[in-house]
Amino acid sequence: MVTGCVLNVVFTQILQEVFVMKKILIAVVALLMLGSFSSAQAGANIRAGGGMIFDGSILGGGAAVDITLGEDMPIAISPFVEYYRDKDDILGTSFTSTLIPFGVNVLYMKSTSEKLDVYAGAGGGLLRLSVDAGGTSESQNRIMATAVAGATFKMTEQMGIFVEGKSILSWKGDTDSTRDLAAFIGLSFSLGGE
Question: What domains are there in the chain, each with its CATH number?
């Protein structure tokens, strides 16, 4: 009987993780499609890479599509999705934390030289937080505000390496708020519009 309950809990957790990963894959595909359908007048960049939330050194990754509003406008709309996961074992109890921030930033983008672009901005969205402690799971959605700054070092006209710093403020209710700092590094691909 106990073995059946344990297998049921494990199977349920596996199904929940598969469901979450499926949602993230759909969001990433949607971001890529959104970027690929942008007009030739308004360029788009796809950024994808790995990163870390400094509080607890939680590793993860994410993707964003920066869609410029026009040839002469240094403003971009940037939908994004990220995924972080941390596993720990404390006194024989397994803890797993999963954070999935997704939303939209508005970025001011400036080309400082032929090989360097910088950007800064802010936005918002939702943060999905899930915690599993010894087989007991709890999840919540939190409202999120973000502030970002970064730079892209162009290797070619179409590809570069980006670095980014981000502040994530999330809250639920009047008193339950958290602030996290994150950093990313990854590849940036230009889809035209220059």
Answer: 2-190 (2.40.160.20)
